[in-house]
Amino acid sequence: MTVNRVGLVLGAGGLPGHAWHCGVLAALATETGWDARSADVIVGTSAGAGVGAYLRGGISGEDLYERLHRPGAAVHHDRLQVLSGQVAAPGTAPPDRRRWRPQAPAVVARALLPPWPRPGVVIGALLQQGAVPTTAIGSWTFELHGERWPDQPLWICAVDLTTGRRTVFGRDPVPVEVPLATAVEASSAVPGFFRPVVAGSRRYIDGGMHSPTNADLLADPDLELDVVIVSSPMSASSGAGRITGRSYHHRLLEWEASRCRALGSVVVRFEPGRELLPLMNGGRRTRPGDMTAIAEAALRSVRRHLRRHDVRSRLDELARTA
């Protein structure tokens, strides 16, 4: 039997994104038999960084869906039982009465001359430093992994406020080695709300400011990936988000996917449709009930998508890895 190499991309998206990933991964498991924990490489950004850490901690997509879908039910996975009370809760940033100033003036100044940083990076640099610590985000990752990184590749994306460039923890050499929990915090540090995460002399913010998905990282001939699966909560399926930033994210993902396809990888993307956008756009106002509804809707949507003949034929490669 041919064993194929699979890359998994888990994009940014906050609480709605976490719920979306749970539904997508559960649908993939039930419809194809593929377990996301077996991915040869996982790229995680913001919400996707946390879900990737769960997967590399031995917790399946079905476990995550069940925990979100039925929070009061018994959890069968021993390691998930320890974390059964940990579901990120919406928060409100305390008022900041300081005089406004950009949190990374050098990056803003650099944007005046080519090569220009990504628009999201410039926006993140212009915003005032957030006031909310990220420690709650990293605590459960530390419970799962401690100081160690998983043996299988897990690439966590953040933006370095010193350079304005993307940093890929778990892949790139960095000035100071950080534990996985710190990398997840850095990747999730939404500018203007969370404080940047400090590691050594560097400050890091949410990797979604560079790209909500960062799928182009898998356009690497050394990886030899047969299939690339992308779960993208912050974009929208074609035609569903024309008047929002989701259309930009959709086009950016198309470019990233084209780079993977150019190397021969089959790319399968999952993006919210029009019917899900009102819930997906809730951000930090998302309630636990909304997260359950998003996960259920994602599960149904992805199941329908996977049953289409053209998608099923592309996923024949994936089915042979199950």
Instruction: Give the proportion of residues in helices.
Output: 25-40%
What is the 3D form?
Answer: globular
The ordered string of helix (H) and strand (E) elements is: EHEHHHHHHEEHEEEHEHHHH
Radius of gyration over C-alpha positions, nearest whole angstrom: 19 Å
Give the structural class: alpha/beta
How many DSSP E strands? 8
User: Which ranges are low-confidence, i.e. pLDDT below 50, for 5 or more consecutive residues?
Assistant: 81-90
- Global mean pLDDT: 87
The end-to-end distance, rounded to whole angstroms, is 11 Å
**Sheet with the most strands, sense and barrel status:** 8 strands, mixed
Task: Describe what is shown at a glance.
This protein is α/β, with parallel strands linked by helices. The chain has helices spanning 14-32, 47-56, 61-69, 78-82, 105-110, 119-126, 135-145, 180-188, 245-262, 277-280, 288-306, 309-314, 316-319; strands at residues 6-10, 41-45, 154-160, 166-169, 197-199, 202-206, 227-231, 266-270.
Overview of the molecule:
The protein is an alpha/beta fold and 322 residues long. It is built from 13 helices and eight strands. The protein has helices at residues 14-32, 47-56, 61-69, 78-82, 105-110, 119-126, 135-145, 180-188, 245-262, 277-280, 288-306, 309-314, 316-319; strands spanning 6-10, 41-45, 154-160, 166-169, 197-199, 202-206, 227-231, 266-270. Strands 1, 2, 3, 4, 5, 6, 7 and 8 form an eight-stranded mixed sheet that branches. A hairpin with a 5-residue loop joins β3 (154-160) and β4 (166-169). α1 packs across α3. Residues 81-90 have low confidence and may be disordered.
